[in-house]
Amino acid sequence: MQGMMMHRDLRIIDILTYAAEAFPDQGIISARDEGDTNRLSYPEVLGRVSQLAHGLKSIGVKEGDRVATLAWNGHRHFELYYGVSGIGAICHTLNPRLPAEQMSYILNHAQDSVLFVDLSLVGLVEALKGDVPDGLKIVVMTDRAHMPDTTLDVLCYEELLDGQPTTMDWPEFPETTAAGLCYTSGTTGNPKGALYSHRSTVLHALYVVAGHPQSLAFGRRALPVVPLFHVNAWGLPYTAPLAGMTMVMPGRFLDGASLYDLMEAEDVFCAWGVPTVWAGLQAEIEKRGNTPPKGFENLLVGGSAAPRAMIAAFEAMGVDVYQAWGMTEMSPIGTRGLLPGWLNSAPKDEQIDAKTGAGRRLFGVEFKIVDDDGNRLP
Q1: 275: domain CATH number?
Q2: pLDDT tens, position by position, 37-57
Q3: pTM
Q4: Is 373 a domain residue?
């Protein structure tokens, strides 16, 4: 017997349409390659994403096509997350730190039809020397005034949007439709691709919002230092709008001083990233008299384990530190660290000890832990 509640397929674009309606005063703040800071509300972002979707269709992108991005964290990259998947195509994020031969392999293996590239990364595409899929269209993510001199045959991002409608009748397709593609080089041989569906992405966002009440707070500002090309920035481009948070995009400058100044100026509440980045921020805070950026209260660390000394240093500054663990193949977060209630009144050293672990699994994740002989452990 079937239940009688209404069924609705889960689609990524619904996260943004929800945020635009429910949280119109929140949005995206971006430090851009052009040297300025851009500010957009979620309704404005949705309008631009609609224009992008129309623009993609105008250059021949159709359902199932792979659309690659080679970009830092910024509002245009965020727009591609939603505009590409919104029309049933697949957003394929490329890591600009990979060697040229691996980047060429990935582009050709994925058979991307379009490549969107940030202004500061055009040289990387030139270095590929044409070793790209046949017919690949290249779009530079800037306006006409900042278009670079290049030997490449390129389109302009803002011109792709200009004149397009700011509304879109979003197509309906099954929630199992592919939406995102991330390649991992953390294996033997050539990089392997993990293909995410709309269902897996939306469910991951819901699980993470439910599992991170300490950092995903309505009306606050989140800084994704983890790149959007690194397993979907751990899902933050989906969880932040869902939770009603403004995202502060740092662009390409991730040194301690640049991050400190941005966080101070934009009143960042929580930040997500890897320990090497936070080591730089820690050193910068110490140079400024151990005074963290105003409003900075929450730090999520992933990618590798945070040293206990780093956790203790940030905690001493009044910043709550939490760790998470995951894999590209998991969308990616699998566990999240939460301080159990019974430790709230415990000595600080005990709390820090508890925070050195990766925490407990998210709902929907299953673990099998074994000893050296393969016997299952409790």
Answers
A1: 3.40.50.12780
A2: 999 999 999 999 999 999 999
A3: 0.96
A4: no
Which of 329, 340, 336 has its CA nearest to residue 358? 336
Q: How far apart are CA 240 and CA 223, in angstroms?
A: 10
- The per-residue pLDDT for 213 is 80
Beta bridge partners of 366: none
347: helix, strand or coil: coil
Residues 326-349 have pLDDT tens digits of 999 999 999 999 889 999 999 999
CA distance 209 to 186: 27
The answer to whether residues 229 and 238 touch, using CB atoms and an 8 Å cutoff, is: no
Secondary structure of residue 223 in the 3-state scheme: strand
Question: What values do phi and psi take at 14, rounded to 5?
Answer: -65, -25
pLDDT digits (tens, 9 = 90+) for 232-260: 999 999 999 999 999 999 999 999 999 99
CA–CA separation, 104 and 131 (whole Å)? 6
Q: What distances in angstroms separate CA 351 from CA 111, 279, 308, 323, 340, one per listed residue?
A: 49, 21, 11, 13, 9
Task: State the residue range of the domain holding 59.
Answer: 13-26+40-196
- Residues near 342 by Cβ (< 8 Å), separated by ≥ 6? none
- In this predicted structure, the answer to whether residue 188 has a pLDDT above a threshold of 90 is no
Domain-embedded: residue 4: no
